[in-house]
Structures are given as structure tokens and as C-alpha cells.
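Side project, low priority. Logging it here so it doesn't get lost.
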Amino acid sequence: MIGVFDSGIGGLTVLHWLLKELPEYDYVYIGDNARAPYGNRSQEIVYEYTRQEVEYLFNSGAQLVVLACNTASSLALRRLQQEWLPQHFPDRRILGVLIPLVETALKTTKTGIIGVVGTRGTIASGAVTREFEKRKALVRPDLARMEIFSASCPLLVPLTEEGWIDRSETKRIMRHYVRELKQKNIDTLLLACTHYPLLYDQFSAIMGKKVQVIDNRAVALSLKNYFERHPDIATLCRSKSETPKRMFLTTDDPERFSNLSSRFLGEQIEAHHVAVL
């Protein structure tokens, strides 16, 4: 079984692509809606909340957990992998969304001028820029230059959850957020928040045809590649049933979560409440 964790409901945009690219696996999704959003919380709090949710998923039978949350991937993933996992679940794996997104952006860019949009927590952490700096030599050693420009977009999460995707107010706010990125002549835009793929068309229209927008399909393709390189882990995660299991959990109101799911996942689901402490 594969566990998918997000601070709220946005991670369903990651699960959407996982189900398309890797449908033969069992999945359990948990959204920590009761404590969302994580974007404005301290690094220590993000780590502790993420640890609790990952532990719950492992205890529920997940062999591998995808942190479908850019803030958690930026602020908690490395510590969980290096310190917590070896002591408590040495045979399990935790993967994030940040590296697949960064590597895809590097493979896509032609000029090396890349823009990143995300929550305040993700952008302020500097984790995305650091990952670009680490990955450049491995992925694109041919790039003569690389410049990363970032913009935090704190209002976009609540706007997408309210369904204001096509509202003129949302588009005006988006134009405001990316104005400086456009002035930098970026040719690639990385959406470093799981909610933002819902605004993919709007970002593409605002940035123009010369800018490629990178979304969560990159995460699913990366996991597929990971399983090809680690067939033993893939076997443990693969469903033993002809009808793979799908389980949806939330720490808050399951009815609201279920109602919002069609917007993020593209289908209606039934979520269940769990208490994670």
C-alpha cells in the first residue's frame, strides 16, 4: 500500500496523477485538515505534525509514503528520512514532491531562468532553490546559467478551496503575485503547492505561451521510475486484489472533505474521520 499525506486536501492533485500512472497499487490518503494550513507554521511544528501523520500511515499498512505537501517536503522530509525513519521504520520509505518537480523543471528549461510559486513557508524555507542548486550538476550540467526566482502566493490556497478558480478576483491576485516573475523573463514555472495545479490553465494563460508550467504529473512519473529501480518495494506496495483499495481519511470534517474531493481528484469519494496525535 502507498500512503499519501497532505496538510489538507490539495494532495489529491498528486493522488490524481498517481492513480492515472500507477493504478495497480493500493492507496490510503490522509489530509490533516484540522491543523491546515501548514504554510505559515514553524519548521518544528511542520516536522512534528508530518511525523505524526506518516507514523499513522505506516501503522495503517503503508510501505511507502509520499509527502504530497510541498511545505512538509521542504521542512520535514530530510529530517524524517535521516533521523526518524532509521530508528522507527527502517524497512519503509518516505518520498517527497520537491525533487521530482525540480528535476522536471531543470529538464524543461532552455534558458535556465526558472520561476517558483508556493506558500510562504515553502518559499521562505529556501528549500526549492537549494534543491535546484544541488540537482543542476546532476540533471543539467549543460546549462551555462541558472537563475531561480520565487514568489509566495498565500491567498491561492483558500481561494481554490472556496472554488474561486475562475473568478476575476483570483486572476487579478495571480497576476499580482507573478508580475515580477514575468519581468524576469522566466521560461519555466514550477507550481510548488499542491493546490496550484487547479489553477494550471490560469497560470499558463497569465505567463504566456513561452513559459512551460510544471505540475504534479512529474511526481507520479518519478514514482513510476523509482519502482522500476526498486522492484522489491513496488511488489510490497502493489495491490493483491483485482480491485485496488482506495481509502480517504481526514482529521477534520469528512463530509466537507468528500464534497471538495471532486474538485481536486476529479471524482467523488467517501472520506472518514481519524484522530491523529
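Brief comment: The beta strands are 2-6, 27-31, 64-67, 93-96, 113-118, 147-152, 188-192, 212-214, 246-250, 272-273.
Revisit when time allows.
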